[in-house]
Predict the structure.
Amino acid sequence: MTSSTRVPQVPITGLYGAVLKRFSRKMFGEVPDALGVMWQHRPVLAFSLGLGRRAGRWHECDANLKSYAHMAVASLIGCSFCLDLGHFQAHNDGLDVTKAREVPRWRTSDVFTPLERDVMEYAEAMSQTPPAVTDELSARLLGRLGAPAMVELTAWVALANQYARTNVALGIEAQGFSAACGLAPLPGPGGVVSHHDR
């Protein structure tokens, strides 16, 4: 365990803890620091994991678009953990890793389609305080995605904000999950690699 998080990590114990650690090692190769932090309040951890599992079953909006939206939120907020994990999941799910790596620079990159750009613009606009979503952008997305996918994308971005802001506030940073699957460490916002990857 590292001591870099703002809330200290604690040993993950018991049957539920053993299941979480086994699942984490199978999926990521190691136990994320986030689990040791969130183990301080198991009902919050269980709620967060359950919410993520249920949201993962939504299928009205394209998975690629939701991945780009989540990483756009993470980049804007500064969650290196979410960017690292998002890149790892994009690789494992067969998504376009080249595009995933370009999300923090989506405004200047030439790899994205107009729809993908609108999705990332929407994710960033939703993540501003106060939200800066415009009628024009919403209308463009509604016309391309349809109402069910638009609602799903909006909820997905809201969840991405919850996870990213929680991680940043608790000091949970990238752990090199992208490197664990043979990829170079993913830079965080501004091209900075987390201390875990140095």
